[in-house]
Amino acid sequence: MVTGASAGIGEATAVRLAREGYSLILGARRIDRLEKVAEATGATALPLDVTDQASVDTFVSHVERCDVLVNNAGLASGLEPVEALDEARVRAMWETNVMGLIRMTQALMPRLKEAGGHVVNIGSIAGFEIYPGGGGYTASKHAVRALTKTLRLELLGTGVRVTEIAPGMVETEFSLVRFDGDAERAKTPYEGVEPLTGEDIADCVAWAVTRPPHVNVDEIVVRPVAQATARDVARDNARG
Ligand code: NDP
Ligand code: 8X3
Fold this sequence. Notes:
Layout: E1 2-3, H1 8-19, E2 25-28, H2 31-41, E3 44-47, H3 53-61, E4 68-71, H4 87-115, E5 118-122, H5 135-154, E6 161-167, H6 174-178, H7 183-187, H8 198-209, E7 219-222
Parallel strand pairs: 1-2, 2-3, 4-5, 5-6, 6-7
Helix pairs in contact: 1-2, 1-8, 3-4, 4-5
The protein binds NADPH dihydro-nicotinamide-adenine-dinucleotide phosphate and 2-hydroxyethylsulfonic acid.
């Protein structure tokens, strides 16, 4: 199961897990794009809005077995300081990144327990770092990190594995969404630097889920070589 598989990290993860031999169910809101990913991977595409409990329930009603749940659906919206945070933007981030992850995890937990499954949460370096203007997003990813660690404790003894993948800068549609479709502004974070790709993160997911069942990969933090923190990026001189 991969949420947010219509683009970026989720799409790359679907492609990679299909290659690893997984039989996939993919969810996202843009069903036309999701169906293209499903065609390429032999997956089943189902509409999913993780902010909507009814949509989550319908999605999960089609699931008979769940070995791996990749909670990937997520977004950033805006880059305003805390004193100017827009409530609708903050709610969109929290409803998707935090409540969406909780909804999916709760809905699939019976299946995950039956299968001795694996929950993989796509967190972020924003789960343990902060940066000016990132307050709404970094707070949501700190929550993802806290939830992931809590879940690992609560599932101790069930055989269900819990992993967080925490990427730094990955070039996807993330910045386009953050900056409300402003394509020029969306390019700026990646200028003069070689960012990670969705495939790099898919590689981490694939590695974590293909370890033997007695091995739990707690967390993977992965960044471009030219990025030391969310704010410290070596531009123009750090290819490769
Ligand atoms: P993209 O914008 O490229 O992809 C985001 C995906 O999430 C899309 O498939 C989108 O599909 C889906 N999505 C968004 N909202 C919902 C929703 N309500 N219900 C279901 N699906 C939804 O961004 P990324 O691939 O970069 O982001 C994937 C994850 O990686 C996010 O959790 C993000 O926070 C995290 N991340 C990204 C980093 C980066 O630098 N890019 C770094 C660290 C973490 P649709 O719109 O069709 O619903
Ligand atoms: C995305 C990474 O640094 O833009 O999760 O917050 S960052």
